[in-house]
Fold these 2 entries.
Entry 1:
Amino acid sequence: MSDPLFVGTATAIVTPFKENGSIDYRAFKKLIEDQIANQIEAIVVCGSTGESATLSNKEKISLITSAIEYADKRIKIIAGTGSNNTQQTIDLTLIAKEHGADGVLLVAPYYNKPNQEGIFRHFKAIADLVNIPQIIYNVPSRTGVNITAETQIRIANECINVVGTKEASGNLEQIAHIIKNAPSHFYVYSGDDVLTLPAIAIGAKGVISVISNYAPKQFGDMVRYALNQQFAEAQIIFYELLELMTLNFVESNPAPVKAIMKLLGMCNETLRLPLIPIKSENRLRILNALNSVGFTVKRSAKP
């Protein structure tokens, strides 16, 4: 377990749906091929950006196995198998391992609002029963609980197969404490695109990204420059993409990114309720931002 699961950019890939709400596997395969062609280091399937909260377990298994099949070992596939139910998480993680996932992303238990001891026991139970590389996903804005630096370090020290954290707390001080005190096998990945540069500057090893869904080459290059300590080059790309990184969250993710991907002709914009398409004024802001950076908007997709 000493080698990192990945270093660089992992795309939290969207789940494309047909207009009737069913999964569009043809589009999904094309998106994976695009990620591979643009040298992204890993793909996260069934994460928040993949609308995992609206997917059935059957659909999650199908997406995970399809991604593994499509990738054919050309890129790391990390399966989002976390939930607020520890046993359900164990069951889905076992299935992901059996089908050949390279690792799993485990969100903090949401809604239950466990204390730090409960969070620790949740992750330890999974790590004890499933021998696969595991990444903690700390996203308090969605789960209602923060996994403290102390708890994450405790998990890392006691669970050798927990190899990293996707830190989406937005708290650079917390990220710094994790990096400073975590064991050598445990890597920190930014969970916020806009904080990726400062996170790498203090020792993070990459990012699990939203913007790389549609800007994989540009954003991936930015991350590689930063990891290479070429921060001047990284900053140029960062500021080119800054407005888009912000607009990706102008409404609930992944509504904005799906709107962008439709404008670029990459996939359908269909979302599952309770998410709905973005407001017209935000669509116009996104269109202007895409044009200003030089993205080619499909004529038929313009609002």
Note: The chain has a mean pLDDT of 96.
Entry 2:
Amino acid sequence: MRSKGYDPIELSRRIEEVVVRGDRRKYYRLGRPGRFYGGSCAADCVGCNLSCVFCWSNMPRIRPDLVGRFYSPEEVFNSLIRCSRSGGYRVIRVSGNEPTIGREHLLRLLDLVERSSEDVIFVLETNGILIGYDPSYAEELSRYRKLHVRVSIKACNEEGFHRLTGAVPEAFRYQLAALKNLIDSGVSVHPSVMVSFCTEEELRGLVKRLASIDPSLPPSLEPEVVTLYPHVEKRLRKAGIWPKLFRRP
């Protein structure tokens, strides 16, 4: 197990100093088509407030100062819409790292999506840390009808969260609090969970905790399985952690 642990809220502040300038945010790729959600277009941002040992993102997470460039909300929106029109995709999203870092940028991007005549859904893929820490974030997100939030839970409990992310164990509760804050604010949301490192008993425990937040959460729980890209496998072996379930790229 990793020792001690960092505070992801404090890390968020430090990462924001690197990847945000006013309403501009760092991305390393725009307008990427993909198979997720039955076909979607993504903008891949730089910088995260968690250091998950199984994360597929590599340099954009580890060295955000060296990767990507700054884009305005308008530039990101236009790239997503061009990709959406070209591929006939209805889902657009920000992926790659943690899009809730840089709140002004994200909300302005969502404003553009909401006001547009495009028939699209914006899927916000987030670890939920900042939304769980600050309920007003969920309240602001409730303004958007074209928004759906996917909260990616990194483990089944506090101990697993610390082991897999290196963060202080209690920060796991921000992920669960994010779901509660979003539901209380009327935001469309579902949880996913990295099941590769959970026992069946731990997963059952998580499902019970989700049900105590809202009965709608367990049926919508999306399982995630780690993909063993070479850099991910190397990281896992170095940490002495091995998944119970995995897929090869």
Note: Residues 121 and 146 are 5 Å apart (CA to CA).
